[in-house]
Amino acid sequence: MSQEYSVSEVAQNNGHDGKPVWIIIKESVYDMTEFIKEHPGGDDSILEYAGKDATKAFNEVGHSTDAIKQMKSYKIGVVRPEYTKVHNRQPTSAANGLSEKQQQQPECGQSEKKRIKFFFCF
Q: 0.70 cut: is pTM over it?
């Protein structure tokens, strides 16, 4: 079983005052302290998320399979379940007052990129 950390424990390890650099990616906690020196994208991209959840930024960059495999060696644990329950919760249509059809409609003035159609309200 992996070591579990609270979000506040991760936040304390933000690289300041000689502390290690921990980040969260996909509910796993990584100690990036040594890796930041080797990171091809430079240390700024990791330090920006030190002590925080970097999942979205990590996914947007598009890392290679080798990079993802290498990350496993820096994994030190997981975030406690109470954090993952809060961050994985999706609003239901009843909760936000919209029908399924309304949720699928783009808002006025926004384009629907998936189908390369444009929808504007006049």
A: no
